[in-house]
């Protein structure tokens, strides 16, 4: 059925540093991995990466639910990616968000691509 990632949001706001690192993840995913991204699963939008919110989805052909991180959002949240390539980006951004203290208790519902997400993080942040 696909991957679903779960997490709890903390009260810590999205920072400029986190935004810049997310932009680097997006750039690396698109250039080095050929992953096509949008914000709402269409071809006419780019991911939204700001200090107010982060919105990432696949393109019109390979999308499911958007990853959504918003300041002052609900405590519990999730994102289903249906095993599309953008799952690696979602996973990497969630790992980074956990490192920055924006989220906690990150989990998923099945096999995942931890190695690919960690590789993407290393490439993007080096």
Give the helices and strands, then pairings.
Blueprint lengths: L3 E6 L6 H18 L3 E2 L9 E2 L3 E6 L8 E4 L5 E5 L6 H13 L3 E6 L5 H12 L1
Antiparallel strand pairs: 1-6, 1-7, 2-4, 3-4, 4-5
Throw out a few tags for this protein.
3-stranded antiparallel sheet, 126 residues, alpha+beta
Characterize the overall form.
globular
Largest sheet properties: 4 strands, antiparallel
Low-confidence sequence ranges: none
Calculate Rg over CA atoms: 13 Å
The averaged pLDDT comes out at: 91
Gap from first CA to last CA: 34 Å
Extended strand count: 7
Count of helix runs:
3
Structural class: alpha+beta
Helix/strand order, N-terminal first: EHEEEEEHEH
Helix content: 25-40%
Strand content: 15-25%
